[in-house]
Structure to design on (243 residues):
């Protein structure tokens, strides 16, 4: 048996976080603000058109706390397209007040631990997701430990399979409350995976992350980067954010 687990890749992904420079924004005259906001909304409408056509997807959230103000999750078929979308945003008039605070480049990943049927509609929906418009989003990068005692990459495949099964069983308990997306970032960014969670109840993020910390694979091997959490930015909230 191959040691590395087979993975299937879907759309390319960038999680991009920006702080709004409100000092700059508030110094703009009303006309300039209105034009910039309208252009930004047109950009979002274009992302929305791709999302509706199911040829790409995206999500737009208002970040809680000091890590940023806006988080845009771009999903596009190729690395060049996802790169171009992010640059297009920064070239807009509104880009002059958006200060990038974090970004994470990855690709949607479905692994074969559970003997995935690549043609199953559910697997296709994971690879090319139609991101739901749930009220809250939580994003964090993670890796798996590599040291002499606990090294995920030197652990038997069967052993890894056993741990992933247990992991999946915990995940299943949250089926009704949380939508989870795994993106792989080996060779693409500074962590091995990105975890994106969405829910209408932000407390569920705390519940699932806490419960998984007690499960063997996260307890022994999980290494976690910074967490970003936010609220869905619909048109009304977007207007209020820049008011
Ligand atoms: O059942 C299946 O088909 C999928 C089983 C499954 C896999 C293979 C699964 C289910 N995950 C898998 C892989 Mn997951 N997941 C995380 C985190 O905070 C933490 O402790 C970990 C972050 C969460 C919250 C989460 C949620 N998962 C992975 C991998 C790749 C592992 C590898 O290849 O080595 C990572 C890094 C990872 C991390 N996972 C689920 C969930 C949830 C909610 C489920 C159930 C989803 C469902 O069945 O629909």
């Amino acid at each position: 048996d191959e040691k590395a687990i087979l993975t299937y890749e879907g759309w390319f992904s960038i999680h991009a976080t920006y702080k709004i420079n409100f000092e700059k924004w508030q110094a703009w005259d009303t006309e300039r603000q209105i034009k910039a906001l309208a252009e930004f909304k047109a950009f979002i409408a274009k992302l929305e058109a791709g999302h509706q056509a199911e040829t790409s997807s995206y999500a737009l959230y208002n970040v809680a706390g000091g890590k940023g103000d806006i988080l845009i999750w771009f999903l596009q078929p190729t690395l060049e397209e996802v790169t171009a979308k992010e640059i297009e945003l920064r070239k807009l008039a509104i880009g002059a007040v958006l200060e990038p605070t974090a970004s994470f480049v990855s690709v949607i990943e479905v692994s074969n631990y559970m003997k995935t049927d690549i043609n199953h509609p559910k697997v296709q929906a994971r690879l090319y997701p139609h991101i739901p418009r749930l009220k809250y989003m939580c994003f964090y990068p993670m890796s798996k430990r590599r040291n002499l005692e606990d090294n995920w990459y030197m652990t038997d495949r069967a052993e890894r399979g056993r741990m992933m099964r247990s992991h999946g069983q915990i995940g299943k308990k949250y089926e009704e409350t949380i939508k989870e997306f795994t993106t792989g970032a080996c060779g693409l960014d500074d962590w091995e995976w990105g975890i994106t969670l969405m829910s209408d109840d932000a407390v569920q993020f705390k519940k699932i992350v806490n419960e998984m910390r007690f499960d063997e694979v996260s307890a022994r091997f999980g290494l976690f980067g910074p967490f970003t959490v936010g609220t869905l930015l619909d048109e009304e909230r977007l207007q209020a954010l820049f008011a």
